[in-house]
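Exercise 7b. Backbone tokens:
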């Protein structure tokens, strides 16, 4: 039975000053059926949370429609409840009062909503804390209140937007296991679960089906059935096989996900999108120190290579944190990624093992050769007699292609890379860029 159906959904956000639209989601088709746990997995920029909010009726699609129980959705979706990454508790209310909020909004009598709230509180293991205030609770307990507040509404579909990411490792593992236990025991108070996550192992552990989104703009690349008996055993060879396959897919964004089996053989390849302006090409949001640190870890491993899932575990990094660093290393030709493995190039090995001064020279060389926007910034500075421009000269160029927040992030990344490469200087107090002496000869 189809509970929620997404049909040809697109989402655009307007750019400042009428400069056009920024595409966040493109032609999304998705169905959530009764009796399944579905995980939405994608890199930063894939629009996971935006899609979740469209399905919840919190924001409208720009094109397409969402059906809930076969009815077109216009406004908040009464068939769903949501658990957020932030706990979003009202600090002046007790645990029980926070759990009762949604019921009170529905006009349910005090006696009935009290009984329902106490059952939900008991279900998440918080009995005894009914009269406690949020300030008295740990992070994990606050999130349990969030789950109880959603459970008490008995939604057809429970949406979870990265519900464990704000918790420490042990607490998140404990809560994740308890949610899985409730589902496997048939005690879960909803017919289906849709979870947005950036944790690949979490997706394979919890879900029956993993939908993988591409980024910039977000689109469905494909889906993978988790064909393991419940509960999903992390030590099962198939579990590792599925995790490894998803890592391969996530680190090869041009490859489409096909079929149910973890095999890239016969996968269709999406041709790269033509981008005319260097200002429209997004930079990975990582600092040079993160690039250097990752390369130094890998260079000390046998043969300067590692399996990406094992590397993520070694560094205790989630996929959203590790993949942008890998993207930057590949962009600068310091590393290659293939079949789920990362390997340093000769110049990457040189960068990771040489002196500080030479590493800066190598970074400048690779940045100018592989990051067109940095070369364009230098050209603009060279064209000015003063060798100087205001920061908004560059920022406005990014704002022609990205929303303000993303434009600021692109700006910050370019400043970090350009300063390290000594391509230019940036004076924060003056809000101006200056060309480095002798840079003209270096670039030419």
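Sequence design result:
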């Amino acid at each position: 039975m189809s509970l929620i159906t997404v049909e040809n959904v697109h989402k655009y956000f307007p750019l400042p000053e009428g400069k056009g639209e920024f595409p966040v989601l493109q032609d999304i088709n998705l169905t959530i059926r009764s009796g399944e746990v579905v995980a939405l997995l994608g890199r930063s920029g894939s629009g996971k949370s935006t899609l979740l909010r469209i399905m919840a009726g919190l924001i409208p699609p720009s094109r397409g429609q969402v059906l809930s129980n076969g009815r077109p959705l216009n406004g908040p979706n009464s068939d769903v409840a949501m658990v957020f990454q932030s706990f979003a508790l009202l600090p002046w209310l007790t645990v029980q009062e926070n759990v009762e909020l949604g019921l009170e909004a529905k006009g349910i009598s005090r006696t009935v909503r009290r009984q329902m709230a106490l059952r939900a509180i008991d279900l998440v293991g918080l009995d005894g804390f009914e009269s406690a205030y949020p300030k008295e609770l740990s992070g994990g307990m606050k999130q349990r209140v969030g789950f109880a507040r959603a459970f008490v509404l008995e939604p057809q579909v429970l949406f979870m937007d990265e519900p464990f990411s704000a918790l420490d490792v042990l607490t998140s593992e404990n809560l994740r296991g308890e949610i899985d236990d409730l589902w496997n025991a048939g005690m879960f108070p909803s017919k289906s679960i849709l979870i947005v996550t950036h944790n690949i192992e979490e997706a394979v552990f919890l879900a029956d089906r993993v939908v993988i989104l591409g980024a910039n703009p977000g689109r469905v690349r494909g889906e993978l059935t988790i064909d393991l008996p419940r509960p999903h055993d992390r030590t099962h060879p198939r579990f590792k096989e599925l995790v490894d396959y998803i890592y391969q897919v996530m680190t090869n964004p041009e490859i489409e996900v096909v079929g149910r089996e973890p095999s890239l053989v016969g996968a269709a390849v999406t041709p790269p999108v033509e981008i005319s302006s260097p200002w429209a090409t997004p930079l990975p949001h990582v600092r040079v120190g993160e690039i250097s640190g990752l390369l130094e870890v890998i260079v000390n491993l046998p043969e300067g290579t590692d399996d990406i899932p094992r590397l993520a575990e070694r560094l205790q990094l989630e996929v959203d944190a590790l993949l942008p660093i890998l993207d930057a290393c590949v962009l600068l030709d310091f590393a290659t990624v293939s079949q789920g493995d990362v390997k340093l190039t000769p110049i990457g090995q040189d960068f990771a093992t040489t002196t500080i001064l030479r590493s800066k020279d190598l970074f400048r060389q690779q940045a100018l050769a592989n990051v067109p926007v940095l070369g364009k910034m230098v050209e603009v500075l060279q064209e000015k007699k003063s060798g100087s421009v205001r920061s908004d000269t560059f920022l406005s160029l990014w704002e022609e292609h990205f929303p303000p927040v993303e434009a600021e992030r692109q700006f910050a990344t370019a400043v970090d890379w350009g300063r390290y490469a000594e391509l230019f200087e940036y004076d924060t107090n003056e809000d101006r860029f200056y060309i480095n002496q002798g840079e003209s000869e270096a670039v030419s």
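Instructor comment: DSSP finds 16 helices and 16 strands in the chain. The longest strand covers residues 2-14.
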